[in-house]
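Changelog entry

Holo records now carry the ligand SMILES as an explicit input line rather than a separate metadata file. Below, a converted record for flavin mononucleotide, shown in the new format.
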Amino acid sequence: MALDNLRAFLGAIDANGDLVRVGRAISVDKELTEIADRCMKSPGGGPALLFEHPTLQRGGVSRFPVAVNLFGSEQRMALALGVTHLDEIGDRIADLLNLKVPEGLFGKLAMLPKLAEVARFPPKTVGGRPPCQDTVIREQDLDLSQFPVPVCWPQDGGPYITLPGVITRDPTTGVRNVGMYRIQVIGRNEVAMHWQRHKVGAAHWREMAERRETMPVAIALGGDPASIYAASAPLPPAIDEFLFAGFLRRAPVRLAKAVTSDLEVPAEAEVVLEGYVDPREALVLEGPFGDHTGFYSLADYYPKVHITAITMRSEPIWPHTIVGRPPMEDYYLGHATERIFLPLLKLTLPEIVDLHMPAEGIFHNLVFVSIDKQYPGQAYKVMNGLWGQGLMSLAKVIVVVDKDVSVRDPREAWWVALNHIDPERDVRFTRGPIDVLDHASRGFTFGSKMGIDGTRKWKEEGFTREWPDKIEMDEETKRRVDAMWKELGIDL
Ligand SMILES: Cc1cc2nc3c(=O)[nH]c(=O)nc-3n(C[C@H](O)[C@H](O)[C@H](O)COP(=O)(O)O)c2cc1C
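Structure line, unchanged by the conversion:
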């Protein structure tokens, strides 16, 4: 059964014994971060937390609880998407992509439902008053300081909304985008929108700026967990995240008309901030912000969103995450993307066997990829191919190894790759776009990349010496030792 909203997700986490309710008053001013950070750093990602009585920046106890670390373990991430293992979704996508035309009429007919599955669960706009509009606040009553918006880290520029789905529409194609971009609260009814230049929301904004038109924006907090995840997924601009969420949850996402714009918002959201960006208006200073690199991202100029309405459920829960030195909750969101999108990468780079972005590499800094090498130079083909795909273009270091190496174990991947390289021969540098959060590149969002070919080298690649085998014990000796193991008194 698909989970329809944040409270259903919390209930399911609670039923698994994986939720800790914090009844004590905890300040949203850094205290909440320190507690959540300790949980997120514990093995396996720690429990989900519900802060029942957060205290506000302006003083006083908030009416609304704050939920943190809901997606912060492999098990909870799978629960959010209604599977036991995330690879099940990758397998489902791989099956859809296996579009080999079958033999015979029955085989062909059997294919039809498979193709239809992609578009089987489009979002559904519902009439009447949706749960997310139980309460509607407008005009002089708009006041974001009543919400428990945390200040995460000591040098942060202000309180931050960290787990939103930012809804915009492409003015040319009309296709919706939902992106997870952090948002700084800068006034009672004003926020700064940190959509980075490589992201789809920013592309919509640039287009609206060219047209000199006001851009409607809706910021959804909560909703069904598949939609929350989908906002963080690097989908191509032509794909609506709510359609993708419907595919993931095998049930449509219910939407409702916003009250002050023509956008649609998730009917099951906890809180929705409706507003607009006026591209003719000056940008505002956003940040600094303690970021998922583990360093502060520096203050910079971003668009201001004017809030025109706040709508919410009757007893809303405020969803939140903390980013900072890894590992954090966002590792699990990114890990889901890694697993789900692998079959799509394999479609254009079929030699890829597996791919992994370890937590320390914070996604764009390090990508391990294993390949089924069939010809010389193939490692370079794969690196260049990855650097040519969507947000993979931001990857700073790509390490390619052979298919027998488990890239999901970074210690194994480094061990083999470092053994297999002659640095001058096997390391290549190139240039390209760099993640906005990278503080070391020579220019803002522009710099160099490194590809490491950690595969076995072939004669055609100029390697003429003998290549040694990996040390492995023979089966006969292992069997003999297995048989005597209990008698040895070695307790491992
Ligand atoms: C917790 C979290 C916070 C994020 N914050 C930002 C952000 O502030 N700005 C940004 O551009 N991307 C941010 N991202 C990454 C985007 O959500 C991600 O790149 C997504 O694919 C963007 O959607 P889009 O491709 O529709 O633009 C964040 C991701 C997570 C998981």
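Spot-checked after migration. The domain at 349-461 is CATH 3.40.1670.10 (UbiD C-terminal domain-like). The mean pLDDT is 95.
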